[in-house]
Each structure stands twice: as C-alpha cells, then as structure tokens.
Write a structure and sequence with these properties.
Length: 286
C-alpha cells in the first residue's frame, strides 16, 4: 500500500514539475527578451523611471507616501513567513536529531537553499555589492550626481547595496518556490500569482526611484534560474531521496551536538579553573 501511495505521489509530483517547468521557462524567456531589449535600448530604463519622477519637487514622490511604504514593508515579510515552517522543521531536527522532520527534507532544503542562494547570495552579496550601478534617484537625470549606467556595464559609481539587481524583487520572485509545491491543479495559479507578486514589488521599487526596470527583470531571471535548478536537483522524482537527506541532516546535527558539548565542556573547565584561582587568592577572614 505504501509503495502504491509513493508511486502516486511521485506521479503527481512529476506532472506538477512539468507544469512548473513550463511556467519557469516561459518567464525566463520573457525576461530574457526584455533584457535584450534593455541592452539594445538602455534609454528605456530611463523612460520607465521618468514615469514616476516629479520634476517639480525633483523627487520620486511615491517614495515618501506612507501607504505605499506600508505596502512595501508588508510585502517584504511575505517570503520570510512562507519559509518559516521549513526553517522551524530544520531547527527542530538539529536540536532533536532522533525525531523525524515534520516537513520532507527535500522540501526544506529546496525552500531554504533557494532563498539563501537566490536572493541572499546571488542578488545581495554578489551582484548588488559588486556591480556598482547607481540607483535612479542618484543619477543626473533625476537630480543626482552619478552618470547613468546600462545594466550590462559595471562601474564603481556605487560601493555597496547598489541598484543592480533589486534585492526586494528577488525575494518577492522567490515565492515561486513555495508556489511550485501547490497541488498540480492549483500550481499554475500559484506560480502565476507569485510572478505577479514579484513584478508588483519590483514596480514599487521602480516607483520609489530605487531601481530600474532592468534591475527587476534580472532579479527575476537570477532567482528563477536558481529556484528551477534546486527544484530539479532536490524534487525531481528520479533524484529525490528524503531518507538519505534526513540521514545527512542527522549527521550534521550529531556533529553540531558534539561541537556544542566540547565548547560547553571547555567553558565549564575554564569557569572551574577561575573559581579555584579566586578561592586561592581570597584573603583569609580575621
């Protein structure tokens, strides 16, 4: 019976993977076409940003709007809320290595890994801190001092936390990862909603003068490629092995417990030694 259920589950996963793969490939193809367009016509980045710039005040006026900032802050919490169950499941396993994980380890590693590698490493650590592209609000066309740079031209005009790519859009596009775990009949709607959510968050950042259109497009491309790669690596029925992954997590947990025990043991020894020194040098009572 269990084998039959497993076969059905793998079949459902496989059909869902085909749907998800089609959506991912369609989005990457569209985004790649936009990237080529923005490379050929870099002024399109400026034209889109100009829609939200107020020449009268020389500012991107929506950036100071309380309601829109509230929407932005609320949206930024969505990815972290969605990944919270997976993070809790992994933390519980690390603390109690003999307990079974509440969520399949392949799903846990898929969600956490794609969030860390996509928005965390690729977007924020690698691109934003090393590409050097100045933000729209900082360039000459919008009352700034820096020169405009097309997306394909790195510079040293910005030292860290720069415009390319959009970190918040990358986090928002990452929601495609949990959306790809929806039941197959709901997966197209879930993935479509996640892509719309990412585009909406990116549009807000453009309206605030913090990012260009190409920053948002490439945030989506980079994040979706990483999500798709980890989906293939961890959730493809031909590769998926939750038992082996759980044993791997148990191995890591065991070594963390040993390390923590060794550190605590040394700490207790140091405290005991200091206590002996204090007692030895304590003056005798009269």
């Amino acid at each position: 019976m269990s084998c039959g259920k497993a076969s059905v589950a793998l079949g459902v996963l496989g059909s869902g993977a085909a749907v998800s793969r089609g959506y991912w490939l369609s989005f990457v193809a569209l985004a790649s076409a936009l990237a080529v367009l923005l490379a050929a016509y870099p002024s399109f980045d400026l034209e889109v940003a100009e829609w939200f710039f107020d020449p009268g005040t020389a500012t991107f006026s929506l950036s100071g709007d309380y309601e829109w900032n509230l929407v932005r802050r609320s949206a930024s919490w969505v990815p972290f809320i969605l990944v919270l169950p997976a993070a809790f499941s992994l933390l519980r396993k690390l603390v109690f290595p003999n307990e079974r994980m509440w969520i399949a380890p392949s799903i846990v590693l898929y969600l956490l890994g794609s969030l860390i590698l996509g928005p965390g490493v690729a977007s924020n650590l690698v691109l934003k801190d090393h590409w050097g592209r100045p933000r729209p609000k900082g360039i000459e066309q919008f009352a700034g001092t820096a020169k405009f740079r097309p997306w394909w031209q790195p510079s040293d005009a910005c030292k860290r936390n720069c415009s390319f790519v959009s970190g918040e859009a990358s986090h928002a596009f990452w929601t495609v990862a949990p959306a790809s775990l929806a039941p197959p009949q709901l997966r197209p709607v879930a993935i479509g909603g996640a892509v719309v959510f990412g585009a909406a968050v990116g549009t807000i950042r453009i309206a605030f003068g913090r990012h260009f259109l190409s920053d948002v497009v490439f945030a989506g491309i980079v994040t979706l490629i990483i999500v798709a790669a980890l989906y293939k690596l961890l959730l493809d029925p031909a590769r998926r092995n939750d038992a082996r992954l759980e044993r791997g997590v148990e191995w890591v947990s065991a070594r963390l417990h040993r390390f923590a025990g060794a550190v605590l043991g040394r700490s207790r020894a140091d405290v005991g030694q200091r206590g002996n020194v204090i007692a030895f040098h304590r003056p005798a009572l009269a």
